[in-house]
Amino acid sequence: MLALLSDQPLLAALSALLGLGAIFGALLGFAAIRFRVEGNPISDQINAILPQTQCGQCGYPGCRPYSEAIADGDAINKCPPGGEETIQALADLLDVEPQPLDAEHGIEKEPVVAWIREDECIGCTKCIQACPVDAILGAAKVMHTVIADECTGCDLCIEPCPVDCIDLIPRKEGIGFWHWPLPEDRAPRFDIIATDTLARDAA
Amino acid sequence: MRQIHDIHGGIHPPERKALSRPGELEPAPLPPVLVLPLRQHLGVPALPIVNVGDRVLGGQTIAEAQGVMSVPVHAPTSGTVTAIEARSIAHASGLQDQCIVIETDGQHEWLSFTGITEWRALDAAALVEHVRAAGVAGMGGAGFPTAVKLNPGPTRPIETLLVNGTECEPYITADDTLMQCQADELIEGAQILAHIVSAESILIGIEDNKPDAIASVEAAIARSGAEIELATFPTKYPSGGEKQIIEILTGHQVPSGGIPADIGLVCVNPGTAVAAKRAIIDGVPLTHRIVTLTGEALASPQNVTACLGTPITALLTHAGLNAAPQQRIIHGGPMMGFAVSDLNAPITKITNCLLAPTPTELPLPEPAKPCIRCGHCAEACPASLLPQQLYWYARAKDQEQLAEHRLFDCIECGACAYVCPSQIPLVQYYRAAKGQIRDSEQEKRRSDNSRERFEARQVRLETEAAEREAKRAARKAAAQSKAAEDGADPIQAAIERAKARKAEQASEPEQTP
Amino acid sequence: MSLLKVTSPHASGQSRVSAVMRDVLLATLPGVVVLTAYFGPGTLVNIVFGGLIAVGCEYAIVALRGRDPKVAVGDLSVLVTSTLLCIALPPYAPWWLIAIGVLTSVLLGKQVFGGLGYNPFNPAMVGYVVLLISFPVQMSAWASPRGLAEVPGLMDTFRHLFAPTTIDAVTAATPLDLLRQNTGLLFDDLLTSSPELTGWGGIGWFEANLAFLLGGTWLLYRRVFTWHAPIAMLAAVAICALMGYDGGSSQSGGSALFHLFSGATMFAAFFIVTDPVSSAVSNKGRLIFGALIGVLIYLIRTLGNYPDAVAFAVLILNFCAPFIDHYTQPKVYGTGSRES
């Protein structure tokens, strides 16, 4: 056998390569089974990234169905509430190129919450049925109200309201939500705020 | 003699403390209008309990605390409430916030107060309640509700009450002045606070660039006869950071993400101690504070006792502001303070200094150059961070790496930006990155919550549908069994009934409308 | 009156990038003076010619990239790059060698990555290595020191720059070359047969190293960089040499003093290894970074095929810098006891 191999260098090289291939293949196969990582199914990971507004702007009835559609190969740029950040996170997760938001499904807006003008509410419960996260409290013929902390701002309650008493108001307004912006490159290092305070006070 | 430890990094900017003549204290004139923000502290804003048009007396509670992380607001003098509305406040954002506006009447009519002289007989909970009701919040700059700090919980036994008289920021002399002018009250306040947290010892730390304050506090300790330790240590910025002074005086480090109480310390500002003393012994709420008015653009830099709610412009005018066409007014010190964007904004419980520099005194920053990774920032960082790495990751918005490099251990002292040869506004990068991370954590919590609620609703809808289906099936089964009993097919019967009705309609003449 | 809104801190220290770069340039002066004194005005002419090309190139590229070229040139970093490269080039190099080196440094070493602060490799060393690999003959033609040969005057040097054939600049092997090429001779024999090797590091070389040590010490005093990387590198070179030196057999690598004071050792320690942009960032990281460069310099000098090893050693460690950074993060306040 050895003599044959030393006489036939081509054969020797081939068998060495084949042998190596077989050994490493077996090793890899073993490792794949032995050290298998139980990960979330990909759709769960996608769903964890989606903003869970359940607004249906993507064309699916909620974030879970859209996450399953993405897992099956749908585009990642159909979620206006998530915006660029969500697209970037999805692109990182799925290792695909990030795309700009598909304007067909809407544009990225400031987060909002629904707010019911309570003296106009007639207590029809239509909005309660429309709310995907059960964030509206009320019963037939009595006034309804939105639990602001639970509202996703999906705007699905606006359409069913027969008296148009629901507004969407910005969720992140006021000093409590402010934080410093990142400095801009090559922008002036200071702002100038015109004021006539002192002149007025002196007068 | 206590062993003094050194902290990593730190810088020595020009101190400029003599400019505001520490040790001299005068009352500021009463302005015609006081603007009292409902949020002068860290936490939930207070809730107004007066109405527009009400006459209020000095010391009257005009807004009460909402929950634990909140402190009440009191009227600093007598007058009339003229508005409760959003006004410009002294905040880095330049945004407005809810304020109570009081037109002062100059009568100085005050509620009468009864203090507690026998405070040693009271238990901690009762005293904390008095401190909370008096509206005391940390007066060093952050405005943390003092009542919360005084309640570290049973799992954190407190050994030492530490009074932080470092005042390491250049220019500011408010604490220095307070320690010189109100040293006896400071000692009393420290004893009360130590009693509340059951601390075994009291330690007062003062940087060695304030010899007058050191002498004054030493004398007050001797007068009180109490066993209080006074420690002095070399001047270096930012020794006055809470975590830094703790390491300097004890050699221990506050665990990352923890509070001083985790290692048996409660750390307060001297102003807070004095406010606590007044709250307990005099029964007087926090309505005034010492403010340093300084900078070369002021004709007479000084320290004043001012009513909370006094507009910044009134104080600056009092100190003789000689404004440049483009003037920078800094709330706080030159290292950590922010530029004010409306001079009508009022001073609050956290306003320790108003700084009006001339352009030559504190030149405007040059455009930032690229980072050359010189590492000066890492050497200056008191938290031993790698500021230049944090800077790259903040630019890249790489939240994972920012956490890895411990962004949240940054105390935003500005030492890194001070030494940066490229003049990069490093602190702003860290503040922005922290804000973004907090935002996305909040959004993550919200979206997790929404997902749960959505899924719960899906389950509910499915159960309801299943129940309906079951009921329908049951009804159908009942009807079928009834028909079987009757011996006729009910569907067939219904079809025949319909056919009969149709035939009847067809035979009738067609009606014209 | 209008209000100015600026972010904190409002006070700022004195340190500026351009001042740092200016200090580095000033610190090369003693070395350049000594090189000129011993090898003639070749290095000086290199620096002036290279500097002109570098500034022109940087200006053009930055302008093309739509940034302010005056700011980029004003920070003096491009002059530091070209000056360091030109000091490393042999005196009396032809003009095209300098031009190619400088353009490679500025374009491939720096600007393709985004300019100052973004380059992963030391730009001067990128230029040097490209030249060393592409033009080994020209790159190893180092001038003979004064005393062993006639040194050209300034005018001759300029003429030589553009017409290398008009004068015969006398070239000789450097001490490191001699050591590497003569493995058959005992050390003492080598010394007697080669007058260039007189002194600790060879005529001129010892003095030049001393001058660069002087400039580097001044930079340390000015706190332009910390001591960690240069001292670690010098210590590593010395320790390796001590271990390899057996008193002078033919296979011996030269004494520690010889390695410290010959070739580009001091120049590398204080002017190349200390480049902050492409080195490790923490002090601990810089110790490792410097030490590994020192080890590589010794290994390549004694075992490798090139006369000096600084450029290769530095570039290899530039590759490793992010890796070193990852494992040498300092202990942050509050995350455990800090080593003092």
List the helices and strands and how they pair.
The complex is a heterotrimer of chains A (203), B (513) and C (340).
Chain A: H1 2-7, H2 9-34, H3 42-49, H4 63-71, H5 83-94, E1 112-116, H6 126-130, E2 136-137, E3 145-146, E4 166-170, E5 190-194, H7 197-202
Antiparallel strand pairs in A: 1-4, 2-3
Helix pairs in contact in A: 3-4
Chain B: E1 25-27, E2 33-37, E3 47-48, E4 55-56, E5 61-64, E6 73-74, E7 79-88, E8 96-104, H1 124-133, H2 146-149, E9 160-165, H3 174-181, H4 183-196, E10 201-207, H5 211-224, E11 228-233, H6 242-250, E12 265-268, H7 270-282, E13 288-294, E14 302-307, H8 312-318, E15 326-327, E16 330-331, E17 338-339, E18 353-355, H9 376-380, H10 387-396, H11 399-404, H12 415-419, H13 426-486, H14 490-507
Parallel strand pairs in B: 1-14, 9-10, 9-12, 10-11, 13-18
Antiparallel strand pairs in B: 2-8, 3-5, 4-7, 5-6, 7-8, 13-14, 16-17, 16-18
Chain C: E1 2-6, H1 17-27, H2 29-39, H3 42-64, H4 69-74, H5 77-88, H6 95-110, H7 123-134, H8 136-139, E2 142-143, H9 154-162, E3 171-172, H10 175-181, H11 187-193, H12 205-221, H13 228-244, H14 256-260, H15 265-272, H16 283-303, H17 310-327
Antiparallel strand pairs in C: 2-3
Helix pairs in contact in C: 1-5, 1-12, 2-12, 3-5, 3-6, 5-6, 5-7, 6-7, 7-17, 12-15, 13-15, 13-16, 16-17
What's the short story on this structure?
The complex is a heterotrimer of chains A (203), B (513) and C (340). Chain A is α+β, with helices and mostly antiparallel strands and 203 residues long.
Describe this structure as you would to a colleague.
The complex is a heterotrimer of chains A (about 200), B (about 525) and C (about 350). Chain A is α+β, with helices and mostly antiparallel strands and about 200 residues long. Chain A has seven helices and five strands, in the order αααααβαββββα. Chain A has a two-stranded antiparallel sheet with strand order 1-4. Chain A is elongated. Residues about 195-203 of chain A have low confidence and may be disordered. Chain B is of the alpha/beta class and about 525 residues long. Among the domains of chain B are: about 20-30 and about 120-320, Rossmann fold (3-Layer(aba) Sandwich), CATH 3.40.50; about 365-480, Fumarate Reductase Iron-sulfur Protein, Chain B, domain 2 (Orthogonal Bundle). Chain B has 14 helices and 18 strands. The longest helix of chain B has about 60 residues, at about 425-485. Chain B is elongated and about 115 Å long. Chain C is an all-alpha fold. Chain C has two domains: about 15-170, no CATH class; about 180-325, no CATH class. Helix content of chain C is about 60%, strand content about 5%. Chain C has helices at about 15-25, 30-40, 40-65, 70-75, 75-90, 95-110, 125-135, 135-140, 155-160, 175-180, 185-195, 205-220, 230-245, 255-260, 265-270, 285-305, 310-325, and strands at about 1-5, 140-145, 170. A two-stranded antiparallel ribbon of chain C has the order 2-3. In chain C, α6 packs across α7 (about 125-135). In chain C, about 55% of the residues are buried. The mean pLDDT of chain C is about 85. Chains in contact: A-B, A-C, B-C. The interface between B and C is large, with 71 and 44 residues.
